[in-house]
Each structure stands twice: as C-alpha cells, then as structure tokens.
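sorry for the late reply, my laptop died twice this morning and i had to redo everyting from scratch. anyway the thing you sent over, i finally got around to it. pasting the sequence first so we're on the same page, its 449 residues, then the predicted structure underneath. double check i copied it right bc i was rushing
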Amino acid sequence: MDKQVNLVGTKDLERVLGKKDFFAIAIGQIIGAGIFSLLPQAIGLTGRSASLAFIFAAIITLLKFAPRLFVMGTARMRGGNYTYIALLSTEKLAGAFLVIHALSNISLSMYALSIGQYFCQLVDGLDIRMVAVAVFTIVTVVNLVGVKKAAVVQQILVICLLVALAIFTAFGIFKVDYTNYVKPEGFMTNGFFGFCQAAAILTFACGGAQNLVNLSAEAKNPTKDIPFVIIVSTSFVAIFYVLMAVVATGIIPVAEVGADLSVVAAKILPGPVYVFFMVGGAMFALVTTLNAQLSACTKPLLQGCADGWFPARFAAVNKRFKTPHNIILLFYFIGLLPLVFGFSMNTISGTAVFSNSIIDILIAAFVFRLPKILPNEWNASKWHVSQKVLVFWTVAGTVASVFAAYMSLRTMDWKGMLLNISVCVAALLYGILRKNSGKVHMEVSYETN
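ok and here's the structure:
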C-alpha cells in the first residue's frame, strides 16, 4: 500500500461518476436481493400474488423516495444520507444514523450467501459459505482500488445481467399457464396480512437506487443525475420484477419453487442458456448489488469520522486510490460475520429491511424543513414546490417508511424483534452521549453543486 493520508471528510474525493455510471450502479444495486434472494420468501408468504406484491412494493418504495428527491435535487450531500439527516433533523440523530447504517449493511452477507447458493447449483461439492466468502473478498479488493474501477466493472456486469433476465422472461412468459395462474386459490395464500408482509420485504428489493445519494461526493452533477436515475431505474426494474415473478409462480407449482429460481430456470431454459442465466443473471445480479452497495456505504462513516463521531484516524484514505480502506474493511467484516457464524437468510434479510426502514423514516420525516434550512438553494432548485406539496410528500414518505418497518419487524421471531429494537435504542443513546461528550464538531458537508 502506498502512504496513507487522512482526508478532511469527503471533499477531496474524486468527482468522476456520471449518469451512465449511476445507471449501472443503480440497476446493479436494485437487481439482486429482490428477485434472487427475497422473491422466494415473498412467494412463501403470498403465493402467486408475489407479482402484485412487487407492484405494491414499488409504489411504497417510490413514496419513500419522494421526500428525499427534493433534497437530492437541491444540494450535493457529500456525506450521503448522514449529511442529509444532520442537515434537516438534529446532530444526535445523525450520530444514531451512523450506527444503524452500519448494521443495515449486514445485507452484504445476504448477497454473498445467495451467490454461493447459485454457484453451488452449477458446481457440486463446494461449500456455499466458502464460495460466499471468496466472492465477497474479491469484490472488496475491487473497491479498495477505486470507485471508478468498481463502476467500470459494474457496467460490464449489468449488461450481461439485463440480457440474462430478458432471456429468462422471454422464454418463460409464454409458457405460463394463464388459465390456472389467475385462479384465486394460488393468490393471497396467507391472507392480506401475508401479502403486506411480502410487499414490505420486497421494498428492500426495489430500493437499492436510494444508495446513490451516498455517492454524491464522487458525482459530477449529483443534483441533476441522482434524482433522475433513481426514478427511472426503480420504475424500470420494477417492471422486470413483476414479469419475472409471473414466470417464477406460473410455470411450476409454487411449493416447488424453493429457495431460489434455479428450479424454474431449469424447467424453461435449454442447457447452455440455463448456465448463462445462472452465471450472467443470478450470480452477476448479486455481484453487482454487492459491488454497488460496498461502493456507496462507506461515505457516511467517512464524513462521520471527520465530524468526530468516530476516531479521525479510522477515516484514513489511500493516497493512490483515494479509497477509505479502513471503512471498507469494516463493512467487509460486518458482512463476513453472518457468513462465519451461519446466520439464516431470514435473519439477515429481516434485519436489513428493518434497519433500512428506520433510516427511511429518519430521512423522510424532516424534509418539510428544507425551505427553512436552505432557503436560497431551495428557491433556485428545479425541484422547488409549494410548502403544502412538500409537507404532503413528507407525510406520504414517512407513512410508507413506517409501514415497511412495522411489516418487516412482524416477519421476525421475538428474539429478532428485540435485537433490532435494542440496536436502535443503543444507536440513539450513542448519538446523545457522543454529542454531549464535546468530541463532535460537525462541518458543513453539503454543497449547491
């Protein structure tokens, strides 16, 4: 490694990401956990109505996103969601967010574990968790050598991914027995409550594009590119998801779908095409999600270290690659622990969905304060609306986020519920105590361009 240097927050990161990079990152981030990790769970909760649950999940997701789009379109948030929360709410909640944000990235292990499952469908005799650890390690190394290099890899993988998903959908959509598909027996198999639980889980599947805000510091034109890419990529992928859910539940009995889509793919795809789908579709989808999330999740902690929430030395950035290697390695170990200790997929996904929903609540609830906090920037913003409209979207986004948090909590057993609620309480206490210690001195980490 070259000589290391501590950067002051996020302002010295290279601004190299454009709209094309963001589309690759967003689509790669969204497609992965949703269709390949969480769809089987949703099918178990609601049967063939998983396709309808995806539509409901996409609507909830866009409602959750709506408030933050006004902020993203007004200023560059160098610290991502951390800067966002600190600017509009309180510094103590910003500190609590950093702890919850770290926990939410336990989902890194979910992606890695799913990659291992699909890989072992093709190659017998390998240990799923060892494959997961190996892939996760490779993706971590790629991110250690620079976000732009990670973005280039992302673009290549996303192209292969979209081709594979299109092939799966094209082969399968005409093989669905629609006469049986629309029969009511296979829909809402656990009632309306089960349908809502499935939709809540799938909001995590539809919501990856929100992480683009954490790349604001490295964006060429964040206020223009990020909101546009979030809306378009989320809507585009949601359509893909609905069609794939129809294929996944309309060709073989729902009970036979199992823990992944390989059974359905083997039924509809010829041999070589099946292999391409498993590699270029399933595994590339999960790799791109893993890569995109690891690229984005470091920025809030990088800015948090500069502000005193954690030791400044922890935010050391490599002089050559301009990457916060210590923080990347922290998230590597957060994602590694569930793999080493054998956490179940349900435990990992439930924790990830709940913690992300709590973050969504913190983000949505204070957007109405934007005109007061940044009056000049707000008046000049292309996203400027009346105060009544802004309040409406604040309320809508908050309600959608609370719904997702509640329903995801209900998917856990009581131990999981207690653990997740305890972490949120501990995070709030940390924010209060650390701020009161006098060690936190938050710098301005937003810019109008």
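The beta strands are 4-6, 76-77, 316-318, 446-447.
thats about all i looked at so far, will dig more tmrw
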